[in-house]
Design a protein that fits this description.
Elements (H helix, E strand, L loop, with lengths): L2 E2 L2 E7 L2 E6 H13 L4 H28 L3 E8 L2 E7 L5 H22 L6 H14 L7 H40 L16 H31 L6 E6 L9 H9 L6
Parallel strand pairs: 3-4
Antiparallel strand pairs: 1-2, 2-3, 4-5, 5-6
Helix pairs in contact: 1-2, 2-3, 3-4, 3-5, 5-6
Length: 263
């Protein structure tokens, strides 16, 4: 297997290279040592989960390609997947379709896995991926849908500002619940939230990713006004759960925060 930017190439789907970041392999090894599960069980779960994440990203990628985008690669990390897309369409309708394609795949997978006991847990995970990603938290899928809808009347820059502002409040809630827990119940279905450092990490990560993409949109706006520059930018979509933007930023942020990861 070929190593590219600390990621192992494992093949391609529809001509799109699929790679495993080396940190994912390290995370699997750490989980096998400290989680109490045997390595085979962890590998089976990892293959199912990250296969689902790869299909989620392929959903984004196929629609983005149909709208004129170019897919460089999909990279799988411990926290999700990253589809690196060049020349991503900025038309609101196209952005909505591209953003919803990933959750649609997760919803279909949840429906396929749920009825069977051996794959029930994967069905549950895909359902969680669907519901988490459709939250209006920019720059996740739901946040991108919100930004696209706001763009129609507010323009892309102001829409991005407003979507990032909404996302900031959700991220703050994730951090608070992750660090301190929250005694809430939803109709007796979900019990009290417990402290979860991963949720706090996710909230912080999504916030930074949203602010980073806002800065990128501001730079693009300034450049377009000065020179008409439009093409050549790369959006990095990371899901689930977080998104980031700006060529390769997902990897660089993860390298900084990798020590906080836990299963």
């Amino acid at each position: 297997m070929k190593m590219v930017n600390n990621a192992l190439s494992i093949g391609s789907v529809l001509g799109i290279p699929i790679r495993l970041h080396i940190s994912l392999l390290i995370a699997i090894g750490v989980l096998s040592l400290f989680s109490g599960f045997n390595l085979l069980a962890i590998l089976i779960l990892a293959v199912g989960l990250f296969g689902s994440v790869a299909l989620h990203e392929l959903g984004h990628s196929v629609v983005a390609r149909a709208k004129g985008g170019y897919i460089h690669e999909i990279v799988l990390y411990p926290f999700g997947g990253a589809a690196k897309i060049a020349n991503l369409s900025k038309k609101p309708v196209d952005e909505i379709l591209i953003a919803l394609a990933g959750p649609a795949v997760s919803l279909v997978l949840a429906g396929l896995f749920f009825p069977f006991e051996p794959t029930y847990y994967l069905g549950y995970l895909n359902a969680m991926l669907f519901f988490f990603n459709i939250l209006p938290v920019f720059p996740m899928d739901g946040g991108r849908v919100l930004r696209a809808a706001l763009t129609i009347k507010n323009g892309r820059l102001n829409a991005t500002r407003k979507a990032a502002q909404v996302g900031k409040y959700f991220c703050g809630l994730f951090v608070i619940v992750g660090l301190f827990g929250m005694p809430l119940q939803f109709f007796g279905v979900i019990g009290p939230f417990q402290k979860n450092l991963m949720l706090a990490f996710i909230g912080g990560y999504i916030y930074m990713a949203g602010q980073q993409e806002l800065r990128m949109v501001m730079m693009e706006h300034q450049e377009s006004r000065a020179s008409g520059f439009r093409d050549g930018n790369i959006d990095v979509e990371v899901s689930p759960p977080p998104y980031a933007a700006g060529g390769g930023s997902a990897g660089s942020w993860f390298e900084k925060l990798r020590g906080l990861f836990r299963g």
